[in-house]
Automatic annotation (TrEMBL):
GO terms for cellular component: cytoplasm. SUPFAM superfamilies: Acyl-CoA N-acyltransferases (Nat) (SSF55729). InterPro entries: Acyl_CoA_acyltransferase (IPR016181), NMT (IPR000903), NMT_C (IPR022677), NMT_N (IPR022676). Keywords: Acyltransferase, Transferase. Residues 254-433 form the Glycylpeptide N-tetradecanoyltransferase C-terminal domain. It catalyses: N-terminal glycyl-[protein] + tetradecanoyl-CoA = N-tetradecanoylglycyl-[protein] + CoA + H(+). The keyword Hydrolase does not apply. It comes from Drosophila rhopaloa (Fruit fly). Its EC number is 2.3.1.97. This is Glycylpeptide N-tetradecanoyltransferase. Belongs to the NMT family. Gene3D superfamilies: 3.40.630.170.
Length: 442
């Protein structure tokens, strides 16, 4: 094993030190002309599992332990903020300092050149699976939709550029919304699309991004945030496993999304995962503008069953549930009296297949919000998957949350190895089981 690889990763995972000194030592190493590191495998993957998990238990969180989060081993019975609101005059007025040679910018998504720059940053550096075979490839239209819901603020589309070249090398965003947590409705921002160029990883740029977005959000009078991550930080309010239902098994095997076992050949897989050509539920169709009010009420009523859920205004509901090809698809079932009885939706999330001779991309349909009242859950989801397959999606994913668990086996979902951890920033509440969570990240 190459020595440099071990050292640099020790730095990321194991070096426990004062945060500011980490930032400073990172700055000295930073050269905008550095090669993109190929050897960024986490050290913990290189050592036996039992030792790795022991080391993780002892990991100290230089940044997160300083934040208003529920800390490890806290026993929580209340449902309230951790630190109180502050007046604008009490909030730091200037942006946090970046390493020398870098500057803060706003990314203007209405400007096609800037949108393309953001797309390129994410396309080359955003979330990868553990085996580094796939990388999320959120399309420009998806980014515009995800980052400009009602109430969006340009000040919360925050980028970092290299001063000399202007290259966009990091990004973080927030969008406003409301959540209900147990019996309280909280004004929050959803923090998403945090990305640091691979060349700048492990240099404590991410904590600066997170502090800066917090400052900007606080200045607008919001003190709570919601985010999800694949990494375990102190402390998730809940954690949901991701499940997959193959729609195009042949391609998924070819790109190594799923292995074939001895008992399951491609031929068997094609049979096992085949779906009818057409949907079967009478009245199942894409949602229309005139359905929005009824569909909004249907979802609102359904969400009252859960402990953590979004609270959508009418405008927000229309924004999130109006179909947009390649971004979001939404369906309703209507009865003979044109009443909306059921709702189904999925996000369109392609991923780049990294270094594959035949396939460049796979398309995932990620379940968004579904409500079955008159139609059975399995028929509703089966029809949604048929529509997704007819829309060229290769796999249908869902988080194990809400009521989905009891239908996963019948619908031929298989469990993934990834967990999505849910975090509330500056909010303390008891943890929740996945079936009590009804919040789907973008
Ligand atoms: C996530 C990412 C921005 C972190 O940057 P980095 O250079 O690896 O990490 P840094 O050295 O700057 O900062 C490390 C700190 O960020 C925290 N961190 C890492 N990933 C995080 C995440 N997804 N959410 C919140 N905090 C995270 C670490 O726990 C650490 O804090 P700690 O010392 O308290 O443990 C970067 O790895 C990246 O762009 N990854 C691909 C995109 C991605 O996964 N984005 C997050 C999903 S929205």
């Amino acid at each position: 094993m190459d020595d440099h690889k071990v050292d640099s990763q020790k730095y990321v995972n194991l070096k426990i030190t004062d945060e500011e000194s980490v930032i400073c030592s990172g700055i000295r190493d930073l050269q905008p002309s550095d090669e993109i590191g190929e050897n960024k495998q986490p050290l913990l993957m290189d050592i036996p599992g039992s030792i790795a998990s022991t080391l993780k238990m002892f990991k100290k969180f230089a940044f997160w332990s300083t934040q208003p989060m529920v800390q490890k081993d806290e026993y929580v019975t209340s449902n309230r903020c951790i630190t109180p609101k502050r007046r604008a005059a009490e909030i730091r007025a200037e942006p946090y300092a970046l390493p020398i040679g870098f500057m803060w910018v706003l990314v203007d998504l209405a400007n096609n050149i800037e949108l393309e720059e953001l797309y390129k940053l994410l396309n080359e550096n955003y979330v990868e699976d553990g085996r580094k075979l796939f990388r999320l490839d959120n399309q420009p239209d998806f980014l515009k939709w995800a980052l400009k819901p009602p109430g969006w603020k340009s000040d919360w589309h925050v980028g970092v550029r290299v001063e000399t070249t202007g290259q966009l090398v990091a990004f973080i965003s927030a969008i406003p919304g409301k959540l209900r947590c147990y019996n309280k409705v909280i004004k929050v921002v959803d923090v998403n699309f945090m990305c640091v160029h691979k060349r700048l990883r492990g240099k404590r740029v991410a904590p600066i991004l997170m502090r800066e977005i917090t400052r900007r959000v606080n200045l607008k009078g919001i003190f709570q945030a919601f985010f999800t991550a694949g990494v375990h930080l102190p402390t998730p309010v809940g954690s949901c496993r991701c499940w997959h239902r193959f729609l195009n098994p042949q391609k998924l095997v070819e790109v190594r999304y799923t292995p074939m076992s001895r008992n399951l050949t491609v031929q068997h897989a094609l049979q096992l995962y085949s779906l009818p050509n057409e949907t079967k539920t009478k009245g199942f169709r894409p949602i229309r503008e005139e359905d929005m009010d009824q569909a909004h009420k249907l979802l609102e009523k359904y969400l009252t069953r859960f402990k953590l859920c979004p609270v959508f205004s009418k405008d927000e509901f229309s924004h999130w549930f109006t179909p947009k090809p390649g971004v979001i698809e939404c369906f309703v079932v209507t009865d003979a009296k044109n009443q909306v009885t059921d709702l189904a939706s999925y996000l369109c999330l392609p991923s780049t297949v990294i270094q594959h001779a035949k396939h460049k991309t796979i398309s995932a349909a990620n379940a968004f919000y579904n409500v079955a009242t008159k139609t059975s859950w399995s028929d509703l989801l089966n029809d949604t998957m048929i529509s997704a397959r007819n829309n060229q999606m290769d796999v249908f994913n869902t988080l194990e949350q809400m009521e989905i668990k009891k239908h996963l086996a019948t619908l031929k979902f298989v469990p993934g190895d990834g967990m999505q951890h849910y975090y509330l920033f500056n909010w303390r509440c008891p943890p929740m089981e996945p079936q009590h969570i009804a919040l789907t990240p973008l």
